[in-house]
Amino acid sequence: MKARFLTLALTFMSLALVAGQTEAAKSKKKNRDAQGYDLVFMPTMKDNVITIDNDSIPPNEPNIVPVTFLQDTPPRGLLDRVNRMVHGINVDIPPEYDQYGYEIRRYMSHVGNPKIYTDEEFLIEQIRNTRKARVIVRFWQQHLEKEVEEIEKLVAEQDSSSSVWTALKQNRQVTRTFVIDLQGWVDSNERLLMNLLDTFGYVQLDYPELIFLRPHERIDFFNLYQTRQAKLNSIKKYQAFALMSY
């Protein structure tokens, strides 16, 4: 009899454990989007504390190492050239052919690392990285604008099919919206880092909480952090930038 009760008890314990693991898995899944990427956490503020994550473990940062860039093969026609406008934006391409997007992501990969709250030299380095990223954004924008101008001229000269015109209009809108989102994301990170530099030493980190020794300074930081997270959410919608953490 005792053996039977022991078996039943172990069975119920196993079921409870499986149920608990299932609920934990569901809970974890709720923090990811439909594609399986981490959702962007919006900060919360209470008293002199700002919470910047729903987990005590900081987000994983993408491992983006320097690469040697290569020249891509020429487009196979006008439609192929139009389609390449969104390569590195909505379409993933190998890093060695993604000279703009890959470098921007490389410079931006650590800008929100928790070390920015404790290591002033690291913080200053990340400010420099946002400014390097902005320069590349500007070059990418100029490249896209020139590409659109040249393609529009060729399409008009060749009296191209409606499919080429349609693809051009769609991709032109995608690239213009993307550049706005990209600039906003980079700029929002720099503004947040500059604010942190101005108050460095007066913000204590107990991840995921930030404790402000001068409470009045938490308002500006909170607003800047909210903006950064909103801009991050916008840029993560582009396939090539979906893994960015900050």
Share in β-strands: 5-15%
| Helix run count | 6
| Number of spatially distinct domains | 2
What's the average pLDDT? 88
Radius of gyration: 24 Å
According to DSSP, the number of beta strands is 4
Helix content: 55-70%
Overall body shape:
elongated
| Spatial order of the strands forming the largest sheet | 1-2-4-3
What class would the helix/strand composition place it in?
Answer: mainly alpha
H/E element sequence:
HEEHHHHEEH
Largest sheet: 4 strands, antiparallel
Q: Uncertain regions: pLDDT < 50 for 5+ in a row?
A: 5-30
Rounded to the nearest angstrom, the distance between the terminal CA atoms is 59 Å
Describe it for me?
By secondary structure, the protein is mainly alpha-helical. The protein folds into 2 domains: 30 residues; 206 residues, no CATH class. Helix content is 56%, strand content 6%. The protein is built from 6 helices and 4 strands, in the order H-E-E-H-H-H-H-E-E-H. It has a 4-stranded antiparallel beta sheet with strand order 1-2-4-3, with no helix packed on it.
